[in-house]
Specification:
293 residues; alpha/beta; OB fold (Dihydrolipoamide Acetyltransferase, E2P); Rossmann fold; Ribonucleotide Reductase Protein R1, domain 1; 5-stranded mixed β-barrel; two-stranded antiparallel ribbon; globular
C-alpha cells in the first residue's frame, strides 16, 4: 500500500506522486458506485499489481474542493485582474473573491498591465488597491512587459497549492512563464475577432512553480453562485463578517432590515459603497435563481 497526491487526471488515469515517483492509477469501481470522483490534489492510498498497474483504494478527507476546475485541497487562489485591456472591474474581482471565500480558500490579488495604464486609470486603481488592502487582501501590481522581474512574487507560491482565476487575456499564463520559463505554458492570446481570450489548457494538472504546486487548468469556467445560499453570502465579504453580530436581527441579510450594522458602516464610509452594491447584486442573483431539484 502506497500513499501520495494526485497531480494529474487525464484519459481515465490519475497520476499519483509518491516519494518523487509518479504512478499511473485507475480508480476502484467502488468510487463510481458511491458517486465519488478522485480529484487532482487528492491525497490517496493506492496499490500496485504485479503487472505494474496502480489502483486507488482510498481518498483521504479533503480540506476543500472545487467543481470547475475539479481540484481538491487548495491552499490559495491567485486572482488575476488587469489594470487595462480589459479594464479593471471591481465587480468581476468581487465575484471571484466571493467564489473563493465560499470555499474557505485564501485569495491573493494580482493586478497586471499596470505599466500600460493612463493617468486616470492609475488614479482609480490606486484607490481600489487601498480599499482591498484595508480589507486584508494581499495585492500585487505586475508589469506587462516581457522580461519584467517577477521573482519577488515567488514567495506567494512556495509550499502552497495554488489555483489561478481570472478572465481570459489578463496574463495568467504569462505570470507563470515569467516565474519559471521551463514550463513553456502556452500563453493566452486576445482574439481580435471575438474580443476575448482563448483557453489554452485542456486538462487539470499540478505543476511545480517556485517550490510550490500550481493548477494549470482552464480556470473558473462558471462564475455563478449556484453553490452559495443567501445566508452565506455576507460571510464571503470579510468586512461584513466582522460586523454582522452588531446587526439588530439574527440572520440579517443586510438589505432591507432595520438596525443593520452593515448599512450603518456603509453610511460611515467604513465599508465601501461599491462593495456593498456588488453584494446586493449578488444577493439578488442568488434570490432569483431557478430552484434546484
Amino acid at each position: 500500500m502506497k500513499e501520495g497526491r494526485i497531480i494529474k487526471a487525464l484519459s481515465g488515469f490519475y497520476y499519483v506522486k509518491s516519494d518523487d515517483h509518479i504512478y499511473a492509477c485507475k480508480g476502484r469501481g467502488v468510487f463510481r458506485k458511491k458517486n465519488i470522483n478522485p480529484l487532482v490534489g487528492d491525497f490517496v492510498s493506492f496499490d500496485m499489481t504485479n503487472e505494474g498497474e496502480g489502483y486507488i483504494t482510498e481518498i483521504k478527507r479533503r480540506s476543500n474542493e472545487l467543481i470547475r476546475p475539479p481540484i481538491a485541497n487548495v491552499d490559495q487562489a491567485l486572482i488575476v485582474s488587469s489594470a487595462t485591456m480589459p479594464g479593471f472591474s471591481p465587480l468581476l474581482l468581487d465575484r471571484f473573491l466571493v467564489l473563493v471565500e465560499s470555499k474557505h480558500i485564501k485569495p491573493v490579488i494580482f493586478i497586471t498591465k499596470v505599466d500600460m495604464m493612463t493617468k486616470q486609470e492609475q488614479e482609480k486603481l490606486d484607490k481600489y488597491e487601498q480599499d482591498y488592502v484595508k480589507i486584508g487582501y494581499p495585492v500585487e501590481l505586475v508589469n506587462a512587459q516581457e522580461g519584467s522581474d517577477l521573482t519577488i512574487l515567488q514567495d506567494y507560491f512556495s509550499q502552497k497549492v495554488t489555483v489561478i482565476a481570472g478572465q481570459s487575456g489578463v496574463g495568467k499564463s504569462s505570470i507563470l512563464n515569467a516565474l519559471d520559463p521551463s514550463l513553456l505554458i502556452e500563453t493566452d492570446e486576445i482574439s481580435k475577432s471575438l474580443g476575448r481570450g482563448k483557453h489554452t489548457t485542456r486538462h487539470v494538472e499540478l505543476v511545480e512553480v517556485s517550490n510550490g504546486l500550481v493548477a494549470d487548468t482552464p480556470g473558473f469556467s462558471n462564475l455563478d453562485f449556484s453553490e452559495i445560499e443567501q445566508e452565506e453570502l455576507g460571510d464571503c465579504f470579510p468586512e461584513f463578517y466582522l460586523k454582522k453580530d452588531l446587526c439588530r436581527f439574527r440572520g440579517c441579510l443586510h438589505d432591507k432590515e432595520p438596525g443593520c450594522a452593515i448599512k450603518e458602516a456603509v453610511e460611515m464610509n467604513e465599508i465601501t459603497i461599491y462593495r456593498y452594491e456588488n453584494y446586493l447584486k449578488f444577493l439578488e442573483e442568488i434570490q432569483t435563481r431557478k430552484p434546484r431539484y
